[in-house]
Amino acid sequence: MADLTKKIGDLDVFPLALGGNVFGWTAGRDASFAILDAYAEGGGDFVDTADSYSWWVGGNRGGESEEIIGEWLASRGGRDRMVIATKVGVHPEHKGLSATTIKEAAEDSLRRLRTDHIDLYYTHFDDPSVPVGEIITALDGLVREGKVRQIGVSNIELDRLEESLAFSDREGLAKYVAIQPEYNLVAREGYEGERMRVAERHGLAAVPYYGLASGFLTGKYRPGVTVDSARAGKAGPLLETERGRRVLAALDEIAGARGIAMATVALAWLRARPTVAAPIASARTVEQLPALMAVAGTVLTGEEVASLTAASE
């Protein structure tokens, strides 16, 4: 599948990042191993997690997802063919982005992941109390030590993002190569516009989270249908919006004409957007995975992209 890979800095990645937020939450160890096995066997090599996943589950402390991924990597081998992305800033024991916090959190992530390097290390949420220079310098130190290959940024205000990129350029330090925004057919405003233009100017690859809007864009949420999902509270209300109904109708039409899953079409639209390298999507069962991975071989026509874009305005 070499012809399908995308570039994030100097990293070659499969065009669908497997979300690890479900590992240790809605997918236990055995189910997580099965999902990771199926993803890798299908050519996938890009796994996204965070040091805080899944602290919100009763009895969890944070880091469960990393531990599962680390155990899987150790048991399966082939670490060098996988691209592992994780994040810093939200773990209950490592909140914020001070230089000390970043260094300590990275060491804990490396231990849980059972590896000597993190391929892509994101700041999970910005910490405005810390100067961007301190954050970038700390991340640069990890890169220089060989503990991190590339750095990325997730939730951050535009002015702080631009300040961070300018600092890296001015000081000749490690620079963000990836941005992870919330971005999908029913959530476009937060990324499109100036944020996307900044990404284009600086060569940042976008790796959108909530690519399927918490499952809404799979089409399983319909009037009168009760969905057994931990994310129903977020996805369900979208059905009550005119925009949500328009998007579902457009997805239905294209998916039906092509004979593919709505999830595949929704992710393919994201892949067609400027700057996007690989949307993130998670599966809590192996059966959910094929529709996600099919995005690698799905290219929408200009007319299909335009139809979905218009429906999501």
Summarize the structure in words.
The protein has helices at 29-41, 64-76, 99-113, 132-144, 158-171, 194-202, 232-235, 242-258, 262-271, 289-293, 302-311, and strands at residues 6-8, 11-13, 17-19, 46-48, 83-88, 118-125, 148-155, 176-179, 205-206, 280-281. With 313 residues, it is an alpha/beta fold. It has a domain at 2-180: TIM Barrel. It has an eight-stranded parallel β-sheet with strand order 9-8-7-6-5-4-3-10, covered by helices on one side. Helix 6 links the parallel strand 8 and strand 9. The mean pLDDT is 95. This is Aryl-alcohol dehydrogenase-like predicted oxidoreductase. InterPro entries: AKR (IPR020471), AKR_Detox_Biosynth (IPR050523), NAD(P)_OxRdtase_dom_sf (IPR036812), NADP_OxRdtase_dom (IPR023210). Keywords: Oxidoreductase. One of its GO terms (cellular component) is cytosol.
Give the low-pLDDT segments.
Answer: none
Question: What order do the SSEs take from the amino end to the carboxyl end, as H and E?
Answer: EEEHEHEHEHEHEHEHHHEHH
Going by CATH, the architecture of one domain would be Alpha-Beta Barrel
Counted by DSSP, the helix tally is: 11
- Fraction in helix: 25-40%
User: How would the global form be characterised?
Assistant: globular
Q: Give a count of the beta strands, DSSP E runs of length 2 or more.
A: 10
Mean pLDDT: 95
N-to-C terminal Cα separation, in Å?
Answer: 34 Å
Write out the strand line-up for the largest beta sheet, numbering strands in chain order: 9-8-7-6-5-4-3-10
User: How is the biggest beta sheet arranged?
Assistant: 8 strands, parallel
β content, as a range? 5-15%
Coarse structural class: alpha/beta
CATH fold-level label of one domain: TIM Barrel
The CATH homologous superfamily of one domain corresponds to: NADP-dependent oxidoreductase domain
From the alpha carbons, calculate the radius of gyration and give it in angstroms.
19 Å
CATH top level assignment of one domain: Alpha Beta
